[in-house]
Write a structure and sequence with these properties.
Chain A is an alpha/beta fold and 278 residues long. Chain A is built from 12 helices and 10 strands. The relative contact order of chain A is 0.20. Chain B is mainly α and 281 residues long. Chain B has 11 helices and no strands. Chain B starts with a helix and ends in a 7-residue tail after the last helix. Classes of the chains: A alpha/beta (278), B mainly alpha (281). Chain A binds chain B through residues 77, 79, 82, 107-108, 110-111, 114-115, 117, 119, 121-125, 134-135, 137-139, 171, 173, 180, 184, 187-188, 191, and chain B through 163, 165-166, 168-176, 179, 183-184, 187-188, 190, 277-278, 280-281.
Amino acid sequence: MAESALARVTPPPVVDATAAAPAAVDAPVRIRTDKVTAMYGKFVAVKGVSLDFRAHRVHALIGPSGCGKSTFLRTLNRMHELSEGGWITGTVHLDGQDVYGDRVSVREVRRRIGMVFQKPTPFPTMSIRENVAAGLAVGAPRSRAETDEVVERALRQTALWDEVKDRLGASALGLSGGQQQRLCLARTLAPGPEVVLLDEPTASLDPIGTQRIEELLFELKRQVTIIIVTHNMQQAARVSDTTTYFYLGQMVETGATREIFTAPKHEQTEAYITGRFG
Amino acid sequence: MTAPSLRRAWSALMTGLTVLAVVAAVLPLLLILGNLVLQGAGNLSLDFFTREPVPAGETGGGVAHAVVGTLLMVGMASLIGLPIGILAGIHCAEYPGSRLTWVTRFVADVLNGTPSIVIGVFAWTWIVATQKHFSGFAGAAALAMLMIPMVLRTTEEMIKLVPHALREAALALGYTRWRTTLQVIVRTTLPGIVTGVLLAVARVAGETAPLLFTALGSQYLSTRLDEPMAALPLTVYQYATGPYEEWHRFAWGAALVLILVVFLLSLGARLALRRTPIGRG
């Protein structure tokens, strides 16, 4: 099923997405990983990955299932260490600061690097408004008016405001899957993170829901740096400025999305993006 | 040829058997309820709940002493048992791999299967025998010991139903672990925990055996937990086996009240569970 979808990728459909992006070189590096190796107990899931993620870009991580791209993503905001036996070697720097440093608070890291998951995860007992405001509860105290303002801004950023402004007090479970996922994105954006990690955010959505999320990314990258893990190569080609190909826990190739999809340097990468395996 | 009709006949036979089994299962319950209502309802009056027993042989009076005793002891047992059971349940769900959790779970399962009279005997050795007198407090302690493993296991199971993704979503927002547990996990599963609590209360409210060696029972209305205390199940036992017609009528009434209490608590548990958000979305 996934294979047949991938087979249709050649040639890459939308390449001008990257062409429209500003020149990639001069933006500052927001996240830098140096020889990140991630393990579950003794099993090595990610081997020595060194990557730079520049600000205000959409970075796509692609590769077959089990290649370590999600695990790598989870090392960036220290979610990996919550997994059974999860630990890493190497370093991750956010704006030059070691995310795993002794004096760094994990919670602070996670507030600055937000995350959206594969399945929508609205908090079931909370209203739409409370869901968006959930992340503000652990930050600096805000007045009700300020909170309302932040909630509205986050909902507007995710194009959800017009759909839910009349029922902010209603349960978030009444929303459709696509709306729920955009709500989760709003919840992640509300505290004002610098980086947003998206772990296959459209995997459980229908094509319309998927399209809406993708459209949002173009707007959002003006404010945040986005790193997205995706199984869908058309999606990577459509939304990202840079693409990194993972295979068997290793980073095989990274570069501008246009180059990866038109002139990959490694045969591995080419085989994957042309759908010869996956 | 005959195959389809044979198959149909076989199907009808099996359906009939299952219906028969359902009737056999429900009939005793309906008979008990019907009998209780017939025999007991006529004895329920305001006096029944508000007046103390009169000396044997006289008519009138009520079982206020037992109603008060049951309320006090179940209330006291809940005060002791619920916080311990719920918190221990949260611990077991939060640290599923720890040795302490394994031991706790095992002990709770054993306690859940222990006949309640054994719990009563233990409460007698620990509290009654050392204090050298029966007391409502000893009864409450015995009931609490019954409640703890029940509440513990239901709390743990309910928390385990909360999808792992919710926990991750909260942690990814920068929530601390305790905040994640209380504001997201426990809050999400609160109706389930309430259900477990109500069922545990319903269960101990009707317990007789653990009270026989502890609260003992009493003929007087008393709110002192350091003295022997009456309870509805004890009153049913005592009055039903007593020699007077008046006592028998009171036993029926008290039995009906007990069943109604259990019925209402179970109904409340059902309603609470229906409010649970898990699995709805």
